[in-house]
Model the fold of this input.
Amino acid sequence: SGSVFLTYILFPIGLLLLVKGADLLVDGASSIAKRLRVPGIVIGLTIVAFGTSLPELMVSVIAAMEGNSDIAIGNVIGSNIANILLILGIAAIIYPVTAKRNTVLKEIPFSLLAALVTGVMANDLLLDKAPASFIGRGDGLILVAFFVIFLYYIFGVVESEPPEASADILLFSHAGSAARIAAGLTALAVGGQWIVSGAVQIAQSLGVSESLIGLTVVAVGTSLPELATSAMAAYKRRSDIAIGNVVGSNIFNVFWVLGLSAIIRPLPFQAAGNIDVLVAAVASLILFVAMYIGKRHVLERWQGGAMVAGYLGYMIFVVSRG
Done:
Protein backbone atom coordinates (compact mmCIF):
# COMPACT_ATOMS: atom_id res chain seq x y z
CA SER A 1 0.00 0.00 0.00
CA GLY A 2 3.03 2.24 0.48
CA SER A 3 3.70 2.30 -3.25
CA VAL A 4 0.05 3.09 -3.97
CA PHE A 5 0.16 5.93 -1.47
CA LEU A 6 3.32 7.19 -3.17
CA THR A 7 1.55 7.00 -6.54
CA TYR A 8 -1.24 9.27 -5.32
CA ILE A 9 1.38 11.81 -4.23
CA LEU A 10 3.52 11.55 -7.38
CA PHE A 11 0.53 11.78 -9.71
CA PRO A 12 -0.44 15.38 -8.83
CA ILE A 13 3.24 16.38 -8.62
CA GLY A 14 3.66 14.89 -12.09
CA LEU A 15 0.80 17.06 -13.31
CA LEU A 16 2.40 20.16 -11.82
CA LEU A 17 5.70 19.26 -13.47
CA LEU A 18 3.95 18.81 -16.83
CA VAL A 19 2.21 22.17 -16.64
CA LYS A 20 5.23 24.06 -15.30
CA GLY A 21 7.58 22.28 -17.71
CA ALA A 22 5.42 23.29 -20.67
CA ASP A 23 5.43 26.90 -19.42
CA LEU A 24 9.20 27.02 -19.03
CA LEU A 25 9.77 25.47 -22.45
CA VAL A 26 7.37 27.93 -24.09
CA ASP A 27 8.99 30.91 -22.31
CA GLY A 28 12.49 29.88 -23.33
CA ALA A 29 11.59 29.03 -26.91
CA SER A 30 9.46 32.19 -27.35
CA SER A 31 12.28 34.37 -26.07
CA ILE A 32 14.74 32.85 -28.54
CA ALA A 33 12.21 33.21 -31.38
CA LYS A 34 11.63 36.85 -30.46
CA ARG A 35 15.37 37.54 -30.44
CA LEU A 36 15.48 35.98 -33.91
CA ARG A 37 12.77 38.52 -34.86
CA VAL A 38 10.02 35.98 -35.45
CA PRO A 39 6.66 37.84 -35.50
CA GLY A 40 4.67 37.57 -32.26
CA ILE A 41 1.61 36.08 -33.92
CA VAL A 42 3.68 33.27 -35.44
CA ILE A 43 5.21 32.53 -32.03
CA GLY A 44 1.70 32.43 -30.57
CA LEU A 45 0.40 30.04 -33.22
CA THR A 46 3.33 27.66 -33.12
CA ILE A 47 5.35 27.66 -29.91
CA VAL A 48 2.54 28.69 -27.54
CA ALA A 49 -0.03 26.41 -29.22
CA PHE A 50 2.42 23.50 -29.17
CA GLY A 51 3.08 24.36 -25.54
CA THR A 52 -0.46 23.74 -24.27
CA SER A 53 -0.44 20.38 -26.08
CA LEU A 54 2.92 19.33 -24.62
CA PRO A 55 1.42 17.62 -21.54
CA GLU A 56 -0.84 15.51 -23.79
CA LEU A 57 2.06 14.80 -26.13
CA MET A 58 4.41 13.73 -23.34
CA VAL A 59 1.86 11.45 -21.68
CA SER A 60 0.65 9.78 -24.89
CA VAL A 61 4.15 9.28 -26.29
CA ILE A 62 5.45 7.76 -23.03
CA ALA A 63 2.33 5.58 -22.75
CA ALA A 64 2.78 4.43 -26.36
CA MET A 65 6.46 3.61 -25.79
CA GLU A 66 5.62 1.57 -22.71
CA GLY A 67 2.78 -0.26 -24.45
CA ASN A 68 -0.05 1.32 -22.44
CA SER A 69 -2.04 2.12 -25.57
CA ASP A 70 -5.35 2.54 -23.72
CA ILE A 71 -3.83 5.45 -21.80
CA ALA A 72 -2.27 6.92 -24.98
CA ILE A 73 -5.58 6.84 -26.87
CA GLY A 74 -7.81 7.59 -23.87
CA ASN A 75 -5.74 10.64 -23.00
CA VAL A 76 -6.20 12.17 -26.47
CA ILE A 77 -9.89 11.36 -26.90
CA GLY A 78 -10.71 12.18 -23.28
CA SER A 79 -8.82 15.49 -23.51
CA ASN A 80 -10.79 16.44 -26.62
CA ILE A 81 -14.13 15.68 -24.98
CA ALA A 82 -13.07 17.59 -21.83
CA ASN A 83 -11.76 20.53 -23.89
CA ILE A 84 -15.09 21.16 -25.58
CA LEU A 85 -17.75 20.09 -23.09
CA LEU A 86 -16.02 20.90 -19.81
CA ILE A 87 -13.47 23.65 -20.50
CA LEU A 88 -15.34 25.60 -23.16
CA GLY A 89 -18.54 25.05 -21.16
CA ILE A 90 -16.92 26.57 -18.06
CA ALA A 91 -15.52 29.46 -20.15
CA ALA A 92 -19.02 30.20 -21.54
CA ILE A 93 -20.52 30.16 -18.04
CA ILE A 94 -17.88 32.71 -16.94
CA TYR A 95 -18.68 34.91 -19.94
CA PRO A 96 -20.48 34.08 -23.21
CA VAL A 97 -17.92 33.01 -25.81
CA THR A 98 -17.97 34.68 -29.22
CA ALA A 99 -16.26 32.83 -32.04
CA LYS A 100 -14.68 34.30 -35.15
CA ARG A 101 -16.19 33.35 -38.49
CA ASN A 102 -13.10 31.33 -39.44
CA THR A 103 -13.27 29.35 -36.21
CA VAL A 104 -16.90 28.42 -36.84
CA LEU A 105 -16.65 27.60 -40.53
CA LYS A 106 -13.21 26.01 -40.70
CA GLU A 107 -11.65 25.06 -37.38
CA ILE A 108 -14.67 23.49 -35.64
CA PRO A 109 -15.43 21.31 -38.71
CA PHE A 110 -11.71 20.40 -38.80
CA SER A 111 -11.95 19.28 -35.17
CA LEU A 112 -15.01 17.19 -36.12
CA LEU A 113 -13.05 15.72 -39.03
CA ALA A 114 -10.25 14.82 -36.62
CA ALA A 115 -12.64 12.75 -34.49
CA LEU A 116 -14.17 11.05 -37.55
CA VAL A 117 -10.76 10.24 -39.04
CA THR A 118 -9.74 8.67 -35.71
CA GLY A 119 -12.88 6.54 -35.82
CA VAL A 120 -12.09 5.34 -39.34
CA MET A 121 -8.44 4.57 -38.58
CA ALA A 122 -9.20 2.77 -35.34
CA ASN A 123 -11.71 0.35 -36.81
CA ASP A 124 -9.78 -2.14 -38.93
CA LEU A 125 -11.94 -4.93 -37.46
CA LEU A 126 -15.16 -3.32 -38.60
CA LEU A 127 -14.04 -1.87 -41.92
CA ASP A 128 -11.49 -4.40 -43.20
CA LYS A 129 -12.47 -7.51 -41.23
CA ALA A 130 -8.87 -7.39 -39.97
CA PRO A 131 -7.92 -9.71 -37.08
CA ALA A 132 -7.41 -6.77 -34.72
CA SER A 133 -7.90 -3.00 -34.66
CA PHE A 134 -4.79 -0.79 -34.52
CA ILE A 135 -4.00 2.83 -35.05
CA GLY A 136 -0.87 1.85 -36.94
CA ARG A 137 2.25 3.64 -38.17
CA GLY A 138 0.68 4.35 -41.55
CA ASP A 139 -2.34 5.87 -39.78
CA GLY A 140 0.05 7.94 -37.68
CA LEU A 141 1.81 9.29 -40.76
CA ILE A 142 -1.54 10.24 -42.31
CA LEU A 143 -2.57 12.02 -39.08
CA VAL A 144 0.70 14.00 -39.06
CA ALA A 145 0.10 14.85 -42.74
CA PHE A 146 -3.30 16.28 -41.75
CA PHE A 147 -1.47 18.25 -39.07
CA VAL A 148 0.84 19.79 -41.66
CA ILE A 149 -2.21 20.78 -43.74
CA PHE A 150 -3.74 22.38 -40.64
CA LEU A 151 -0.56 24.40 -39.94
CA TYR A 152 -0.53 25.48 -43.59
CA TYR A 153 -4.13 26.68 -43.21
CA ILE A 154 -3.32 28.57 -39.98
CA PHE A 155 -0.44 30.44 -41.59
CA GLY A 156 -2.72 31.30 -44.51
CA VAL A 157 -5.21 32.82 -42.07
CA VAL A 158 -2.48 34.81 -40.35
CA GLU A 159 -1.33 36.37 -43.61
CA SER A 160 -4.86 37.45 -44.51
CA GLU A 161 -5.71 38.87 -41.08
CA PRO A 162 -4.19 41.95 -39.49
CA PRO A 163 -1.72 40.89 -36.79
CA GLU A 164 -3.23 41.26 -33.34
CA ALA A 165 -1.35 42.26 -30.26
CA SER A 166 0.30 38.95 -29.45
CA ALA A 167 0.88 37.58 -25.98
CA ASP A 168 3.58 39.47 -24.11
CA ILE A 169 6.78 37.56 -24.72
CA LEU A 170 9.40 37.91 -22.02
CA LEU A 171 12.98 38.29 -23.15
CA PHE A 172 15.76 36.32 -21.46
CA SER A 173 19.47 36.03 -22.15
CA HIS A 174 20.47 33.09 -24.38
CA ALA A 175 21.68 31.26 -21.29
CA GLY A 176 18.43 32.01 -19.47
CA SER A 177 16.38 30.78 -22.43
CA ALA A 178 18.46 27.63 -22.77
CA ALA A 179 18.18 26.94 -19.04
CA ARG A 180 14.40 27.32 -19.22
CA ILE A 181 14.14 24.97 -22.21
CA ALA A 182 16.32 22.37 -20.50
CA ALA A 183 14.40 22.63 -17.23
CA GLY A 184 11.10 22.50 -19.09
CA LEU A 185 12.04 19.38 -21.03
CA THR A 186 13.26 17.65 -17.88
CA ALA A 187 10.09 18.52 -15.96
CA LEU A 188 7.96 17.31 -18.88
CA ALA A 189 9.81 14.01 -19.13
CA VAL A 190 9.69 13.31 -15.38
CA GLY A 191 6.09 14.50 -15.03
CA GLY A 192 4.95 12.44 -18.01
CA GLN A 193 6.64 9.36 -16.62
CA TRP A 194 5.00 9.77 -13.21
CA ILE A 195 1.57 10.35 -14.77
CA VAL A 196 1.74 7.23 -16.94
CA SER A 197 3.09 4.90 -14.27
CA GLY A 198 0.73 6.51 -11.76
CA ALA A 199 -2.26 5.99 -14.07
CA VAL A 200 -1.37 2.32 -14.53
CA GLN A 201 -1.04 1.81 -10.77
CA ILE A 202 -4.21 3.72 -9.94
CA ALA A 203 -6.12 1.59 -12.46
CA GLN A 204 -4.70 -1.57 -10.87
CA SER A 205 -5.36 -0.48 -7.30
CA LEU A 206 -8.97 0.50 -8.09
CA GLY A 207 -9.48 -2.56 -10.25
CA VAL A 208 -10.60 -0.50 -13.26
CA SER A 209 -9.40 -0.38 -16.87
CA GLU A 210 -6.45 1.80 -17.93
CA SER A 211 -8.81 3.24 -20.50
CA LEU A 212 -11.08 4.58 -17.72
CA ILE A 213 -8.19 6.35 -15.98
CA GLY A 214 -6.89 7.65 -19.34
CA LEU A 215 -10.27 9.10 -20.31
CA THR A 216 -10.88 10.73 -16.92
CA VAL A 217 -8.05 11.65 -14.55
CA VAL A 218 -5.24 11.75 -17.11
CA ALA A 219 -7.31 13.51 -19.78
CA VAL A 220 -8.55 16.24 -17.45
CA GLY A 221 -5.11 16.57 -15.86
CA THR A 222 -3.30 17.15 -19.15
CA SER A 223 -6.04 19.61 -20.16
CA LEU A 224 -5.39 21.87 -17.16
CA PRO A 225 -3.30 24.34 -19.23
CA GLU A 226 -6.22 24.68 -21.69
CA LEU A 227 -8.60 25.20 -18.75
CA ALA A 228 -6.40 27.93 -17.29
CA THR A 229 -5.99 29.67 -20.67
CA SER A 230 -9.66 29.52 -21.67
CA ALA A 231 -11.12 30.42 -18.27
CA MET A 232 -8.74 33.39 -18.00
CA ALA A 233 -9.51 34.50 -21.57
CA ALA A 234 -13.27 34.36 -20.89
CA TYR A 235 -12.80 36.26 -17.64
CA LYS A 236 -10.87 38.96 -19.51
CA ARG A 237 -13.58 38.99 -22.22
CA ARG A 238 -11.11 37.73 -24.85
CA SER A 239 -13.50 34.99 -25.90
CA ASP A 240 -11.99 34.43 -29.35
CA ILE A 241 -8.89 33.17 -27.51
CA ALA A 242 -10.99 30.93 -25.26
CA ILE A 243 -12.54 29.07 -28.17
CA GLY A 244 -9.56 29.17 -30.53
CA ASN A 245 -7.37 27.67 -27.85
CA VAL A 246 -9.73 24.73 -27.26
CA VAL A 247 -10.48 23.93 -30.89
CA GLY A 248 -6.82 24.28 -31.88
CA SER A 249 -5.80 22.05 -29.01
CA ASN A 250 -8.24 19.35 -30.14
CA ILE A 251 -6.84 19.37 -33.65
CA PHE A 252 -3.29 19.25 -32.25
CA ASN A 253 -4.22 16.34 -29.99
CA VAL A 254 -5.51 14.08 -32.72
CA PHE A 255 -3.27 14.91 -35.65
CA TRP A 256 -0.04 15.66 -33.80
CA VAL A 257 -0.17 13.81 -30.48
CA LEU A 258 -2.03 10.69 -31.60
CA GLY A 259 -0.17 10.68 -34.93
CA LEU A 260 3.25 10.85 -33.32
CA SER A 261 2.31 8.24 -30.69
CA ALA A 262 1.16 5.80 -33.37
CA ILE A 263 4.35 6.32 -35.40
CA ILE A 264 6.43 5.50 -32.31
CA ARG A 265 4.42 2.36 -31.63
CA PRO A 266 1.19 1.09 -33.24
CA LEU A 267 -1.68 1.48 -30.76
CA PRO A 268 -4.12 -1.43 -30.32
CA PHE A 269 -7.70 -0.16 -30.17
CA GLN A 270 -10.54 -1.73 -28.18
CA ALA A 271 -13.96 -1.71 -29.85
CA ALA A 272 -15.47 -0.24 -26.65
CA GLY A 273 -13.50 2.92 -27.38
CA ASN A 274 -15.79 3.64 -30.32
CA ILE A 275 -18.33 5.19 -27.98
CA ASP A 276 -15.69 7.65 -26.75
CA VAL A 277 -14.64 8.53 -30.30
CA LEU A 278 -18.32 9.06 -31.09
CA VAL A 279 -18.73 11.33 -28.04
CA ALA A 280 -15.70 13.35 -29.22
CA ALA A 281 -17.27 13.74 -32.67
CA VAL A 282 -20.66 14.65 -31.18
CA ALA A 283 -19.00 17.23 -28.89
CA SER A 284 -17.57 19.04 -31.94
CA LEU A 285 -20.93 18.75 -33.67
CA ILE A 286 -22.76 20.19 -30.63
CA LEU A 287 -20.32 23.10 -30.57
CA PHE A 288 -20.90 23.73 -34.29
CA VAL A 289 -24.69 23.62 -33.92
CA ALA A 290 -24.59 25.82 -30.79
CA MET A 291 -22.95 28.50 -32.94
CA TYR A 292 -26.24 28.80 -34.88
CA ILE A 293 -28.72 28.41 -31.99
CA GLY A 294 -29.64 31.56 -30.12
CA LYS A 295 -27.11 34.32 -30.80
CA ARG A 296 -25.11 33.57 -33.93
CA HIS A 297 -21.49 32.53 -33.36
CA VAL A 298 -21.94 32.93 -29.60
CA LEU A 299 -21.77 30.15 -27.05
CA GLU A 300 -24.19 31.43 -24.41
CA ARG A 301 -24.17 30.75 -20.67
CA TRP A 302 -27.05 28.25 -20.79
CA GLN A 303 -25.33 26.37 -23.62
CA GLY A 304 -22.12 26.24 -21.58
CA GLY A 305 -24.08 24.93 -18.62
CA ALA A 306 -25.70 22.25 -20.79
CA MET A 307 -22.26 21.21 -22.09
CA VAL A 308 -20.81 20.88 -18.59
CA ALA A 309 -23.88 18.84 -17.59
CA GLY A 310 -23.32 16.65 -20.65
CA TYR A 311 -19.71 16.15 -19.63
CA LEU A 312 -20.70 15.07 -16.12
CA GLY A 313 -23.18 12.64 -17.69
CA TYR A 314 -20.42 11.23 -19.89
CA MET A 315 -18.13 10.86 -16.85
CA ILE A 316 -20.84 8.93 -14.98
CA PHE A 317 -21.22 6.67 -18.03
CA VAL A 318 -17.46 6.05 -18.31
CA VAL A 319 -17.12 5.22 -14.61
CA SER A 320 -20.17 2.95 -14.59
CA ARG A 321 -18.80 1.14 -17.67
CA GLY A 322 -15.66 0.70 -15.59
Notes: The beta strands are 97-98, 134-135, 267-268, 298-299. The first strand starts at residue 97 and ends at 98.
